[in-house]
Amino acid sequence: MTxxxxxxxxxxxxxxLRTLLEGHGYEVETAVNGQIALEKARTAxxxxxxxxxxxxxxxxxxxxxxxxxxxxxxxxxxxxYTATYTDAKDEELALSLGAVRFIRKPSExxxxxxxxEGVLQETTDDHREIAEIAxxxxxxxxxxxxxxxIHKLEDKVVQVKHANQRLKALNWVSTNLAAIKPxxxxxxxxxxxxxxxxxxxxxxxxxxxxxxxxxxxIDAVAYTEEEFxxxxxxxxxxxxxxxxxxxxxxxxxxxxxxxxxxADSRWIAADESxxxxxxxxxxHEGELFGVLSFFSTEPNAFSEGHARDMxxxxxxxxxxxxxxxxxxxxxxxxxxxEAEVAARTAELQxxxxxxxxxxxxxxxxxxxxxxxLRTPLTVIKLYxxxxxxxxxxxxxxxxxxxxxxxxxxxxMVEEVLDISRLDLGRTTAHLEPVDLNxxxxxxxxxxxxxxxAKSLTLDFEPAANLPYVLADKQLLFQVLTNFLANAINYxxxxxxxxxxxxxxxxxxLWVTASVADTGPGISDLDKIHLFDRFYRxxxxxxxxxxxxxLGLSISREIINLHNGQISLESTLxxxxxxxxxxxxxxxxxx
Length: 590
Ligand code: ADP
What we know:
binds adenosine-5'-diphosphate, five-stranded parallel sheet, alpha/beta, Rossmann fold, 590 residues, 19% strand, single chain, six-stranded antiparallel sheet, 52% helix, Beta-Lactamase
């Protein structure tokens, strides 16, 4: 069986070659460097040797030279199979040392087998002419050999330099991305550093919008403002769309290299100077964020290595974007909370102010009460004294005063009780259909005498077919009584007219009841405070009629309980009209 000695320090490569050659019926011996190969060949010579060049201990060049100087081995054909020394000068040296073939990896496996078969054929046919071996002296060989080594070293230095540059850039970008920044800043930062470190000509980032399934250009490096705006308008891609390649990379979620843009029909020639491109998807935990694209004015500027590096970068970028997103969401949530707290604080502030106002009102109420109760009591005390010591012929006057002050006191106590019941919410309106005409008829009868006593007319103009109102009869009677009592109290000549009506306001039907007098009228200042508790206006203060200044505020609270309203029209020296507005009983549809 034909025996092949394969020499390679890459054990994976060795394994593949062994499988390939054994599959073709050869016996395969392996060695991981030149030294071992020589030992094995000297013990059991192979029919052919296939050797790599770059290997530790003894490399392929040295092995080939020693092989060809060995009388036993030099007739065995030597084939070089190399991935690292691929220069024409390397081939020249190898062939000058006696190698029969110089094959560059990766070549098709079949091709390698064909070459080996060819070489073996030449040997068995005895056609093989032992190559004109440059039987150089050792120093000459060493000089040529060193040249190749140095050349290789230079190559390697450049490669290492580039690799270092890439790693540095990656490290730089990744470390800097770890700090949370606004999303836009992260992307701009990454693009700039990549451009600088990798010496690419341009870099873009297209963000993916889940809702519209579109990619939009949100950042680009190395363009002017105008160019960028124009590109933004021009470069919008749908997910999966081949044109422009961005949508395609987003769909496939794999990096894509364009070696020569002019040869790719999907390329959009927005800039003729660009010759090669690299597209990389930006994803995090299966979610697509966008696509990074890098361009070069050189053809073939991007290798698989670049793609791998930029994928690493894209993954780091995605984490940074995700962090920024979470940070921004948290920030927004915090702002929302802050706004809610501010709103709540404002509400509490209002509540506090309201409670402070209520407290103030209560204090004023207490001090007013103190004053209002004391006045009639002092008068009563005084007149009781007069009854005791005063002249008996004045008794009638004393008793009249005592009666008036006692009534005033009683009225006040009742009104205070009314107010406190209203304040405590203990007054509930028991709503029922009420005929206002009927209620006012009763009231007029009740008070007619009082009006007559003051020589005032008292008229009632009821509206015909007046709808019933939903009201608490007793509370409503109290309000109308208060209006009428005020009108009688404060009017000295002329008279009072009560009337009912219907009216439309705010697109609603209302039932109204009003009390109009020809009294002194109400000043603008009084109009503002009339419904305040304990407020007595000009008329109240100038009149001898008992009063507390609570009647109108009680009336307003009662009408509020009915969801109704009170309106006032008044002209000084002409008279006043107080009107209540109430909802009619809803009529059934059928
Ligand atoms: P009181 O009548 O006990 O003073 P009210 O709250 O009923 O308390 O009325 C408050 C004030 O409104 C009165 O003091 C008076 O100045 C004014 N007022 C009420 N009704 C009339 C009216 N018909 N004409 C003129 N002034 C009025």
